[in-house]
Structures are given as C-alpha cells and as structure tokens.
Amino acid sequence: MVYPSRASPDCVCELGAMQPHHSPRGRECMALNNHKNSVTLSRIMDRTAKIGIIGLGYVGLPLAMVFAEKFQVLGYDADPKKRKMLRQGRSYIDDVPSSELKAKLESNLKIIEKDSQLRECDCIIICVPTPLDERGNPDLSYVQHSADIVKKVVRKGMLVVLESTSYPGTTDEFLGKAITDAGFKPGKDVALAFSPERVDPGNKKYNIRNTPKIVGGKDVLSAELASVLYSSIVEAGVVVVPDCASAEAVKILENIFRGVNIALVNEMALIFERMGIDTWEVVKAASTKPFGFMPHYPGPGVGGHCIPLDPLYMSYKAKQYGFVPRFIELSHEVNEFMKSHTVNLTMAVLRKARVPADKATVAVMGLSYKKDISDTRESPAVEIIEELAKRVKKVIVHDPNASVIETPIGVFKSVPMRSALDQADCLVFVTDHSEFASLTAKRLCGKHVKAVVDTRNLFSREAVEQGGLVYMGVGK
Prior knowledge:
By secondary structure, the protein is an alpha/beta fold. It has helices spanning 12-17, 27-33, 38-45, 60-67, 80-87, 98-105, 141-153, 170-181, 220-231, 244-275, 279-286, 310-320, 326-352, 380-389, 417-423, 434-437, 441-444, 461-466, and strands at residues 2-3, 50-54, 72-76, 109-111, 123-126, 159-162, 191-194, 213-217, 238-241, 361-365, 394-398, 404-407, 410-413, 426-429, 451-454, 470-473. The protein folds into three domains: 2-242, Rossmann fold (3-Layer(aba) Sandwich); 253-330, N-(1-d-carboxylethyl)-l-norvaline Dehydrogenase, domain 2; 339-473, Rossmann fold (3-Layer(aba) Sandwich), CATH 3.40.50. It is built from 18 helices and 16 strands. The chain has a nine-stranded mixed sheet with strand order 1-9-8-7-6-5-2-3-4, sandwiched between helices. A five-stranded parallel sheet has the order 11-10-14-15-16, sandwiched between helices. A two-stranded antiparallel sheet has the order 12-13.
C-alpha cells in the first residue's frame, strides 16, 4: 500500500485507512492515537519531534540533511574524525555540498559528540555499514554497536528504524533484542521498523524525496508511525509491506536483481568477445524492444556498497535454511572474474603492442566504482591495480574525482591527466567518467601510450586504431 506524501494533521485517518488489506478502515489510525506512541505521532505531525541519525555516511548524512528541513536532527557517527569534519561544516559526501551542510548546522542539524544525547530523540534511524568479513560472511558489528546504543537510550514511545541493508530477520535479531533487553516490548512499548535506504550516489534524477520509501514494521502500529515520519519528507510516497523481514527482503531482491543481470551480460560479453560480436551494439539494439527487456551493461566488475556485498548476505542466510542459492553465487563469481579479465586484456594488449610487461607503465584510469563520483568503496579498480602491480613494471592511477585509493599493496594517489597520458604505455579505463568520454583518439596518444583497454565502451575501436594505438575492450 502507498501512503500519500507530505502528511499533515488532516490526513492522519487517511494514512490509517491505507494500511494493508487485512486492517479495518481507519482502525489503526485510531489505535495509534491511543497508543503509547501517540505523543511521538503528534510531535511528528507538528514537526516538534527530534530525529536521531546513527551513522553519517553516504546514507545517513543526506538523510539527516533532508529531515533537517522540517525537524530538529541530532546526528551521531562513531568516527570522531567524521564528527569533527561535520561540525566544521566540511562534507565528505559528494551529494552533500559543504555550503548546504553549514546552513543546516546553523538551523536544525546538530552533530553530537556523545551517543547518550540520542536519549532526547523521539525517533532514531540507523544508517550504518553492513560489510563482509575476511571470510566473505556478513559483518554486522556496526549494527550491533548501534543496537547497543539503542539499548542505552531507548525509552517508551520511541520509534526505532533500521535502514542498513541486511538479510531478512536482522531488525528483530539485533534491534528487537536490544529493545527487549532494555525492558521494553518491541511494537508495544517501542515502535520498531525497517525502511531500506535506496540511495544512488551521484544520481541527479532520483533522490530521497522522489524515490518511494519501503516500510515494514514489527506490527501495524510501528509501520504506521514510521510511514507518517517518512511521508513527511518523501514526496513519492511510502510503500508498506507486511513486516520488517519483508522490507529487508525487498532491498536484498533489488540488489540481487541487479547483480544477477549484470553477471548475465558480463558472461554474454565474454562469449561475444570470442565470437567477434560487439556486446554494446547488441545491448543497444535489444533495448529498442519496448517490453520484456531491461538493458544492463558489461564492465570490469561491480562496485559500491550494495551489489558486490548484499547478495552474499542473502546467500549466507539462505544456507541457514538449508538452501544453496546457485544464481546468487554464480553471478558473484562471474562479476568477480571480470576484474581478472580486465587484467588479462591488459596483458594481451601489451603483447600485441610489443611492450614487455617488465618494462611497461600502466595507467588505471578511474578509481571510483561508478561515473562522476569519488566513492571508491568495493571499486573493481582495487583488485585490478593490485594484480597489475604484480605483472608490470609500474602502475599509476588517475581519477578526476577520487584523489586516492587504498589497496592491499598500498595507497595510490591520483596523478594529473596529462601526467598519466605522458607516462603510460597502456591506459586501462575502469570508470566511465565524463572527463574520459571527452577524450579524443588524438589526446590519448601521450608520449608513450601504445595501447588502450576500454572496459566501459568509452571509445570507438576504429578511431583509436586509426590513431595508431592497439585497442581492446570488454565485450568487443
């Protein structure tokens, strides 16, 4: 069910009427007003509620900024360096300009130093990382730390929401337990909900306001309260699902869908390369079908905090139920292999250009995991740099947005574009930044450049080869 946006006191009953089909019309709204959360409800409706955000990264900071347009917001991050930067008005998130951060700090946003201050809040929203450990299993230590904070500060009538992506059951397993351990009943004394983040860093079209919000609650009243809160900032509306586990499953499915389909086109690209078929032209032509096809594109592997990691959360949980998810694990293997394939293409293009590997300088062009952002989390560039460094004389890097990238063999600093073009024997384009797309074959020809590896279809083979360079591309 979809809740209308921009909730106002006049539409509370309508919100209640739009609960799942098993709910009598308007009854939940009436119950909510008589519930222990009624004070929180009224504060949300009249904008006097205090919103606490735990985790001020790529999800939490933009969310805090949007909520601060209408509410008082207390933001907390476990990293003291981040807290210091934010208090100084310096943003480390591309989508949050420092100028806008400073303006919010002067009005409704406060960066708190102690997590105990969250006790003042009516609603607490958790936006912390959910990475993998060294064995590839879910690392929920950040969620556990947040649950420990909730256990200390939670009080009757509070709303607690988890936004961090994880396997179904996480909200109840960690936050439900924390609330119970604090002496309260989740759903009865304290509203508990899961509402997955749907942040797409660098996306100029879709943002928090115009992307529908998914909400699942511990019970109907928890879902209702969370829906009223989010509908105050999400213009696209709130979609309510039966429970927290269903909402967690929605997010996992969204990312598995992407991962599996990217893996499919990556595998097709490997086949089409051998057959002499241009994958990019095939996808372009297939995209003209107005139904039954959604374009996905090959590349050097997947990056970011979602697609490379979240499917493995589901795989981990599925195995606890005695099921081995073959699609999920195979797609992960295919996408991971594309990093090795990019390295293999580089070595092949060097041989074709007659450049000995032990004398070659290779420039990795693009460090971030996607176009025109600085985010290097889980970027394919990390492993590509590491593997190339074992095989060639020297690896240098360039990115117009990311100044450095950390790898297992050290930190690589971005050199200027001109320096990369002048030093390299081979250019390996890992990210499709706009800066790279504007390069001509003539500009690619630096002092030493003899070869190009194009993993993002940035250049025409014919144009590059006419410039006297050897060209190889993923899916070509």
